[in-house]
Structures are given as C-alpha cells and as structure tokens.
Amino acid sequence: MANDANLEKIQGVNVVVYARKLAEAAKVAGQLIPYQTSLSIDPQRDSDKKKTKSGTVTTTSSLETDFKFEFVNNWSKIADQLLDSIFDNEEMEFWAVNRQRKNADGQYYALYLRGKVTEDSNDNDPDDVSSRETTITVDYGPVRGWVTLSEEQEAELAYIFRGIGAIEGSPKNDGTDGAGKAWNKETDAGQGVSDN
Question: How far is CA 82 from CA 25, 37, 133, 134, 155, in A?
Fold first, then answer.
C-alpha cells in the first residue's frame, strides 16, 4: 500500500457537476450547476456465477451507472434545462469535475456522462430553501479524462480577491480588479512595510 502521507484525500466539496444540452454542444460551454449540495456516481456491473462440472464460470453484465445530484433550487438557465430534459426527453451531457486533481497541463480530472433526466424531485419545506434532487439515466459513460476550465469557470469555483477601487471595464477576476493584488503565499507571507 502506498504511503498514506502521500495520498491526497478528496473532499466532496471539490467534485462538482457541469452540464449542457447535447444539442447545444457546438455553441455553449458546459454550465456549473449552481448551489450543489450532493453528488452520487455509482458505476456497477451485475455478475452471475454458474457451476459447471469443471468449475465455476463467472459472467458480468454491461456497465450501468446511477448518477444523481442535489442542489438548492434556482432559476439558472441550466436548472431550467434539466427540467427541459425530462419534459422534452432531451439528451444532456454531464461532467463530474474534481477540482482538487490536476494533470501537468493544469487540466482537471473528470468523469464524462451522457443521459436524460428521468427524475427531478422538488422539496419546498416552509422552514428551508427549496431543493431539487435530479436523477439521470446514463446512456453513455462514465468515461475518464481531463478538462480545461476557462478563467470564468475557474472564478465560479473559487473566491477571487478584488481591490476596493471601482472596477473599470470587464472584470479580469485575477485579483487585480479594483486596484487590488491577490495574496501569494510563497512571496507575501511574513512581508509588510511599516508606516513608521
């Protein structure tokens, strides 16, 4: 077994779902499902054993995947499109992106799946926010790979420092907006200049 000190423990908060309608693949980037609270991916194969006179023969079925996630109900475009998928029987594609695991090119580890929404339950308790649990019937995948996130997508996943000044032009989301400078733990730790 590998040395436990070298193993990275994956935190559930770091695995997030992106989705889009398959029909829009040529014109729309995958969209982050806002306010996710849980994600479950369960690939499985049924197996069967048959006793023969010369030993046991094991057979396995094709891969099946249970895929569902929960999120706080909202009126984002992608939340509405999840309902479109179940109402209109539309195929969607999904990525479960692990933002804690990167390759040497800075891409994130992801599972890619295609399928249709087959259940979208909606809970509306009076003392809590409205929540949805969405279940996908997977037709394709999961397939493992690496995805590149745009600066905008990166900003959705992380808090970006901004300076106190007015933001001129389009936000850059790199820490310099508002005449700011993002903290660099390698060079800024222990640094400072006294006014005295």
Answer: 15, 16, 11, 8, 23
